[in-house]
Design brief:
This protein is mainly beta. The chain folds into 2 domains: 1-43, no CATH class; 44-239, no CATH class. It contains 2 helices and 13 strands; from the N terminus they run E-E-E-E-E-E-H-E-E-E-E-H-E-E-E. It has helices at residues 55-66, 168-187, and strands spanning 5-8, 15-18, 24-26, 33-35, 40-41, 45-48, 80-106, 113-128, 148-149, 160-161, 193-220, 223-230, 236-239. Strands 6, 7, 8, 9, 10, 11, 12 and 13 form an 8-stranded mixed sheet that branches. Strands 3-4-5 form a 3-stranded antiparallel sheet, with no helix packed on it. The longest helix has 20 residues, at 168-187. The protein starts with a strand and ends in a 10-residue tail after the last strand. The mean pLDDT is 91.
Amino acid sequence: MSIVKEIRCSNCGAPIEFEPGEIIATCKYCGYTVVIETGKAFVFEHSMLLNEYDPAQAEEAVRDWMSSGFMKPRGLAKSEILEKELVYLPFWIIEVKASTKYKGIFERITPPVVKEGKIEKRYNWLVLARRATEFPTREYDVPLEGKIPYDFRKIEKFAKVLNSEIDQAEALDKAKQEIEEFHKFLIKQDVDRIIEAHTEFEIGKAVYLHAPIWFVKYKYKNERFQIIMDGSTGMIIKGDIPPVDFGPF
């Protein structure tokens, strides 16, 4: 098991607990955010999204999702809910303008032709600030219009708040790598074989944000599944769907 360490909050003096590997921590007593390695105050924007669902409402939203749409097995909405956990996950949101010039070969005609092009896009690129946690960041459309300055008083007592294990520099490097891979995917819509591709970045501000995410586990026909829901909007970010069974429930 991990050994919990702590430092004293330089704002209120209360202990700030953190796990090995965590880089940025927030005091649960006053909301002050510090860089663990230096003990210095956090100098970037620290925001949060408000959770709008209590456990009963979260379950209701999940059952509504279960009972709607296609390709879901009959009786899914009657599944047993095993666990409902609200976690405030830390994210870095990197404002980026990315421009990729490329050259490739279009082989779907004879003879093949060489094509050149450019992809230019602006992003608020989302990077999960945890190393071992699997989360579908590309499926999560963060409702940034609802963000407010981080306020520890608005965190539910039953919720879990995770600290960041990634600093801004590492988040930026990760965002660049992911954008390059995404642009290669877009290039492959235009050419069949990429000869060369070069991406230039214009970096804007970085926001450190905690978002309320509901992790709901349920059981259907003795198998366990998970649903991930945005607590600020009720949107299902990702939901496991059992195979369709046309037999009796």
